[in-house]
TrEMBL record:
Residue ranges of domain Methyltransferase type in the record: 39-125
Residue ranges crossing the lipid bilayer per the database entry: none
Superkingdom of the source species: Bacteria
PANTHER family found in the cross-reference section: 2-METHOXY-6-POLYPRENYL-1,4-BENZOQUINOL METHYLASE, MITOCHONDRIAL (PTHR43591:SF24), METHYLTRANSFERASE (PTHR43591)
One protein family per Pfam: Methyltransf_11
Biological process terms in GO annotation: methylation
Protein name, entry field: Ubiquinone/menaquinone biosynthesis C-methylase UbiE
Keywords: Methyltransferase, Transferase, Ubiquinone
SUPFAM superfamilies in the record: S-adenosyl-L-methionine-dependent methyltransferases
One annotated GO molecular function: S-adenosylmethionine-dependent methyltransferase activity
Organism: Aquisalibacillus elongatus
Length: 260
């Protein structure tokens, strides 16, 4: 994962920043008091780490990408940034009151070891994961234009049942899951953030900050898909496509677990 994100990290913050609503829900689900010590694992360039610090938390961020951590360090000198792997977190036992992970578990080699590591470094408190699932991605309208890339990306996504079962194996109690629907004013341009703004995907800078396009999609598929999307936007057929891809599963999911 590190080489991929070292490359993405070069221009990541051009299109990626913390979304206020996602930040608000992360803080709500963490259920910690101000100045609590909270760890953001696989923190990337630290957008959500910084946003959570601004809500009053004492934040720590860890990522295995040197390029990502370099950019993170430029954003805050009060956050404790660490270069490290989620499978061997560089922290002592029971030092955090909460842990967050945003749009990253699909990059883990396995779920159990990182979840056990989170359990180890938590004193007591919640582990909040924001992710998409294989089931949810089947209903992204992006499948219409980039079917191979989205299918491969969906295969990377563990289903929510596997996530919760693995959290249980690691020792956590499951508090619950909350689905998240993309809104038109979303500020963080991750994979399905253009749900209501198809024009967004015509921008190469936006695509370069999304791992599905940067890592999984072939140049040929992107070229063909973009041309088809552009034509559908011009002809307004895109409205028919957006209507076809509807789902009751939500677009993303917060998974909330607790160590008591």
């Amino acid at each position: 994962m590190a080489p991929l994100y070292d490359q993405i990290g070069l221009s990541y913050d051009t299109t990626r920043k913390a979304d206020p609503e996602i930040t608000r829900r992360l803080r709500y689900h963490l259920q910690v008091t101000d100045q609590s010590q909270v760890l953001d694992i696989a923190c990337g360039t630290g957008n959500y780490t910084v946003a959570l610090e601004h809500t009053g938390l004492n934040m720590f961020g860890v990522d295995q990408s040197k390029e990502m951590i370099k950019h993170a360090q430029e954003k805050s000198t009060t956050i404790h940034w660490e270069l490290g792997d989620v499978s061997k977190l560089p922290f002592n036992n029971k030092v955090f009151n909460g842990v967050a992970c945003t749009l990253a578990i699909h990059h883990f080699d396995n779920l159990l070891v990182p979840f056990q590591e989170v359990y180890r470094v938590l004193d007591c408190g919640r582990f909040v994961i924001f992710t998409s699932s294989h089931e949810q991605m089947k209903y992204y309208w992006l499948n219409e234009y980039f079917p191979d890339a989205i299918a491969e990306s969906a295969q990377q996504m563990p289903n929510i049942k596997d996530v919760t079962e693995t959290l249980g194996t690691a020792g956590f109690n499951i508090i619950g899951n909350e689905t998240f629907l993309i809104q038109p004013d979303l500020e963080d341009f991750f994979l399905y953030s253009g749900k209501y703004d198809p024009n967004m995907y015509l921008n190469e800078k936006v695509r370069s900050g999304i791992s599905t396009f940067a890592n999984l999609a072939s140049e040929e598929e992107v070229e063909i898909g973009i041309e088809k999307l552009r034509k559908d936007i011009e002809s307004k057929r895109i409205e028919e496509v957006l209507t076809k891809y509807t789902s009751q599963l939500g677009d993303y999911t917060f998974v909330v677990a607790e160590k008591r």
